[in-house]
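If it is no trouble, can you show me the amino acids of a protein and the tokens describing how it folds?
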Amino acid sequence: MQYLEISEWSKEYIEEVINDSDKELTNVFVDDFVNLTIKERLIDLEEEELQNILEVIGKNASFFSRLRIGVENLLGEVMLERAMHEADLESEGLLKDGAETLLRRVDGKFEIPSEFQEEE
């Protein structure tokens, strides 16, 4: 068995979830696809093969977990860069009225919510 194909096992599931408009069913699909994968690919394997597959799945899970964190960090940087650019445009008076922005203009006195105020 080629263990490299393990990373392809989720392809059909991912396609199904992306095309699914009802996001509440996503967990059901995960269980369905996991059960189908076990039934079609794993049920007849020997103990050693299952241990090898489990090791490869663990490495894939680790990779994708770290990749997700990396992508989240990258997204945060991109959003921060865009917000800083919008702040520059606003400060220079170049931001068009009604433009969609992450910033919210506050004129006059602004009251800080109590949960963010320091205790005296």
About this structure: The chain has a mean pLDDT of 83.
